[in-house]
């Protein structure tokens, strides 16, 4: 009696083909010193030949069907992975320690023929797309001493937009003394050949990378005296708090001298830097969330706030891994956010 030819399952054929191709590509890349793309092409051809000889050729219909199943399975797993990643993000609590080499140190630099005392921190960080950066954030000791607690002398000018007016005063007072910081970012800009969005990403991720600290108008108390969200951070890092600071915000020069900053301490510094580089940037505050974020008028996907016809894409600054248009899940109702200051 004549035997009916065996019909091979397309799924089995794909599995064996994928296994042979994957292992073959690794071997070819390792021993022949060729690119991964070339390795996978050669391994794929060899894999198809060997798989057909081992288990036979699959039917076209079963092969197409199982390719479709695998495609949608991969898409589904990727979607689930991204969904989980989005919800495990937490603001400001992930890192409360510095690497030793990144702490602030007192040193000197030469300016012309003068030796100038400075406070400098060597920042080493990655942006939210894995690009590596390194630079020194430096302020002069004389500038720090001159501007320390200058917010105490601020004269309140009405209450309609208290925070916006205060932030504008801080920006205008401190920015002339941030020239060394601007130079450091400008050097990175030139060396890395960054476009407008990449430069903003680089600057903001640098500040995101600095561990969070509370800045209180009153004196800092032991951790057990605070609500859970604050207590958890202070139990892990008792030094992550500075108190007796007027309005609960450090001016940029003071922030760079000790690297202790909360939300609006960071947003004002970022605002000053991006404004200096001619960005259309905004600071948004929320009384509901008791938080402050940056907005940037650049083409990007995600959450945004419209202000006088311009779209400001929002940006979280107190924790790593947030890109333009992303906010933590507990802060993402855009109706609770208000623009308090813009650069243009």
TrEMBL record:
<feature type="transmembrane region" description="Helical">
    <location>
        <begin position="67"/>
        <end position="88"/>
    </location>
</feature>
<protein>
    <submittedName>
        <fullName>Uncharacterized protein</fullName>
    </submittedName>
</protein>
<feature type="transmembrane region" description="Helical">
    <location>
        <begin position="12"/>
        <end position="31"/>
    </location>
</feature>
<feature type="transmembrane region" description="Helical">
    <location>
        <begin position="37"/>
        <end position="55"/>
    </location>
</feature>
<keyword id="KW-0472">Membrane</keyword>
<keyword id="KW-1133">Transmembrane helix</keyword>
<keyword id="KW-0812">Transmembrane</keyword>
């Amino acid at each position: 009696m004549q035997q009916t030819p065996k019909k091979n399952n397309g799924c089995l054929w794909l599995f064996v083909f994928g296994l042979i191709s994957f292992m073959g590509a690794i071997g070819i890349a390792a021993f022949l010193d060729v690119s991964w793309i070339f390795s996978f092409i050669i391994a794929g051809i060899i894999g198809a030949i060997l798989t057909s000889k081992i288990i036979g050729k699959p039917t076209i219909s079963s092969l197409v069907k199982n390719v479709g199943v695998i495609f949608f399975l991969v898409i589904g797993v990727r979607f689930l992975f991204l969904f989980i990643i989005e919800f495990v993000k937490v603001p400001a609590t992930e890192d409360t320690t510095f690497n030793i080499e990144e702490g602030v140190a007192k040193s000197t630099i030469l300016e012309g023929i003068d030796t100038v005392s400075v406070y400098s921190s060597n920042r080493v960080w990655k942006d939210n797309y894995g690009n590596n950066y390194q630079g020194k954030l430096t302020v002069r000791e004389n500038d720090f001493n001159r501007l320390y607690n200058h917010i105490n002398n601020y004269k309140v000018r009405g209450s309609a937009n208290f925070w916006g007016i205060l932030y504008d005063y801080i920006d205008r007072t401190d920015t002339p003394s941030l020239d060394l910081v601007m130079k450091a970012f400008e050097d990175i800009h030139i060396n890395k050949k960054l476009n407008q969005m990449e430069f903003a990403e680089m600057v903001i991720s640098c500040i995101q990378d600095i561990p969070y600290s509370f800045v209180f108008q009153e004196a800092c108390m032991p951790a057990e005296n605070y609500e859970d969200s604050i207590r958890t951070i202070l139990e892990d890092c008792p030094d992550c708090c500075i108190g007796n600071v007027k309005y609960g915000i450090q001016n940029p020069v003071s922030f760079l001298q000790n690297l202790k900053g909360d939300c609006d301490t960071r947003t004002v510094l970022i605002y000053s830097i991006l404004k200096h580089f001619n960005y259309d940037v905004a600071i948004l505050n929320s009384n509901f969330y008791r938080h402050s974020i940056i907005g940037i008028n650049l083409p990007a996907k995600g959450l945004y706030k419209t202000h006088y016809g311009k779209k400001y894409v929002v940006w979280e600054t107190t924790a790593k891994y947030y890109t333009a248009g992303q906010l933590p899940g507990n802060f993402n109702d855009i109706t609770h956010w208000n623009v308090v200051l813009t650069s243009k």
